[in-house]
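FAQ: What does the model actually see?

It sees only this:
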Amino acid sequence: MNRILPIAVLLLFCGTLTAHPHAWIDLRVSVLFTEAGDLKALRQEWAFDPTYSHLLLEDLAAGQPDLDLDTALQVMTERMLANLREHGYFTEIEMGGRRLEPAPARNGSLNLRQRRLHLQFELPLEAARPDPTQPLSYRVYDPTYWIEILHDEEDVIHLAGGSGCSTRIESPRPEARLVAYAATLDRNQRAPIEDLGRPFAEVVSVECTPR
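And it is asked to produce this:
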């Protein structure tokens, strides 16, 4: 496919897709460490499902139909990260039980591969070593829940430079009544329940051997 075609033309090759109230994202994460073994950043890649990817491109094409794909992806990257920043990048980070506010994301990019948009970005972390007494933990979730975000089953959480460190994933166990309620929400509805998506999120813990 010619990448310089307008994005509106590219959408014609994707077929007719309809909105779905529960989109899903495959999550891949790398925990980056410094040479000294301290935390450096949390690198995330979100692979959006084909239907939602098409809807995002369709929305952008409606407003700016003459954009080529590369420009459209750059515009969408900036827009996504700006919106996500208002919600902490959908990422809840704790260190030793202390809630950390995510710093502004860096190294953001968006690519289209096999009909799926892949968003990548890094969240800087304060320099510290997460030992068993003060582990690092994180959750990634949409507070409205209609987007399900789970780690890619065919991938692992990478520890880049984290010698002597390990990870553990705790699967979510939401109550049945909460699952039933979330299923009733339309794609454009925002749940009146604060942080509705939190019980649906996996919890990842990172621990390292003490220095």
